[in-house]
């Protein structure tokens, strides 16, 4: 049984209630049976469990292992620096774990924001008397009283209404106020039924009474809340890729560490030295600075997006947006200004203006007109002119579909009427022309109907305006004179067409999903360039409801497609269908109804100005200006973030080779260990960090929005990146490092096979030369990594001042490590003579030449 199909009395009877409401004893009985009018939180893992999971993922476990081994090594040889290494690794784990936990914990706030939309106190009729009670105490069968400014506490059937208008935007997503009355309706969709008021909506005008038929989780509001809580979005492509890269690098590092430690034992190394050897291999291959560098690079991208009116709530969304292949966008307020204006008219200007100026229910304030945006648009279109006092009104209702106001004028009473053409035109006997009123014959009626159809096909909302002097007291709306027709629109934002074109050029598909009428949706889509074909695929909510999954997937193949009259669950279904096609989907929304789709999408984008708390909490980012063009600007920044992560991954991984080769030389050839583990950490978490971050701050490349989105299969760790980092850049850096090491040993008279104590001044100088050569090579390498194909001295070189500052700090840090007592003590270094810095320069110069040749060949292949 659908309560909207029943009469008001039958609706009350079906709930075993009446005009006098429920008795107190019955309310208590129903509270026990139905429960309180609240949204129960979804059971989740305990906070402590979720907190611990943030510190036990694969990469974290790998680092815990390295820290544990370092502590064991410290026990074998106290004071060797392994204890400091263990503490530093644990600090990395803690920083990243806290960040991950915070991102998970924010999901709990979604349900709390849903509950905040519900009112705390409600006016209710019980046992014939009006009372005020907590919204949580409302039960099915309660009769509630509604007035302007009230929020609706539960789903209810209107049983009495006087010009009752509801703002249903939090549930339907459409900003236009809708009328509600007590008459039965055949509409099956609760969101569209004209006699239902739903939890979370609010009264903007009029008053009425309604009988509650659903509370708590059983309301439409509760159903949407369940969808929001129940759909766990897959992690972002970036996080998935970082996890994949971590697993690959981690497995390789552990396998190499164990294998080479075993090899060291067979070569005759003492067990503790073999353990140090194995730890060194693991630490050298695991880029400890990767996760914090990625996090900070995303934060830099988020800060840039904020300057483009996009607020990031979930850092991985920065990059995810850059990889989006589809943007599913609302219409109202995102593509349009969410402000009605008169677009077209038919009829004499003066006649139309007289009706526009008088026939409304607006209120005047210090800030302008308050009320229905459509009426505001009409009054503003009328312009200044004489105003006559209102002395009567025939209110609007959903059956009449018109409003009439009676005014006192010097020439006598005049009634002004506006409403739907099909209800106003039959009441008119004459029509206005420039020469005066003429008889409205069939030809003229047909002409007005054709004009109405033309306006409607252009997506305009069409109203008929009429008046009559000295109206009949018994039937004031009879014998009207038609002033003409007015077509209103919510105009597109002026910057949106360019943004749509830019998105198309970047290979991003833009699909409108709106609750508005198909004609209006199509007209806006054509105007902004979203639809260009003659026969676009238009899928309405009714059609989607009966479509199979196969039919929906086939419909999505259409080049031009839009969705109109779409509900919350249907929007969610469209997003899921796109994801099954392999798309990375960005979804915009502002209402409670949009929350499930926002959460399901790979990237949820809520409106900052018109959006509800629920939508903002479910989303990954918020448009501060509600403007679609800001999304496209943010896409460019997102693409830059991914490119920058690849740049600093190349930079970070390149240093793994010169950190690994010294341990191979130590374990396989018996030379004194050229680089200690603590010195590796000095590079990974010290000197390399700022240059890597500077690469993460590189501005978007000029061609970022002329390329298609990257494929899901295109990872961070590609064969090309590995070959460049390890075989090309890393190999030359390793040669530079070992050149510096052996140059110092040779100058000090060392002979092959000769042992050196850890505190030997020659050994300290030699390891320092190895470390210094790596840092110098990395200082040059950072400029090579700025561009994958452009030369090191391209015209954009001065475009990132952070890079120059980072290199200056990098050089400053290595000088402090080499030439200060505290640096010598912490990192096991010793001051170097000036000539030792030059030992690795030939290898570094060769590295530059080799990479420039590679870049030139890559540019040639592109052409």
From TrEMBL:
Query: GO CC terms for this protein?
Result: plasma membrane
- The UniProt record lists the Cation-transporting P-type ATPase N-terminal domain at 2-75
Q: Read off the Pfam families from this record.
A: Cation_ATPase, Cation_ATPase_C, Cation_ATPase_N, E1-E2_ATPase
Query: What parts of the sequence cross the membrane?
Result: 51-73, 79-99, 248-269, 275-300, 715-742, 762-783, 803-822, 834-853
Entry superkingdom = Bacteria
Task: From the Swiss-Prot or TrEMBL record, state where the protein is found.
Answer: Cell membrane
PANTHER family per record:
CATION TRANSPORTING ATPASE (PTHR43294:SF21), SODIUM/POTASSIUM-TRANSPORTING ATPASE SUBUNIT ALPHA (PTHR43294)
What's the protein name?
A: ATPase
Q: Which organism is it from?
A: Skermanella aerolata
The major lineage groups are:
Bacteria, Pseudomonadati, Pseudomonadota, Alphaproteobacteria, Rhodospirillales
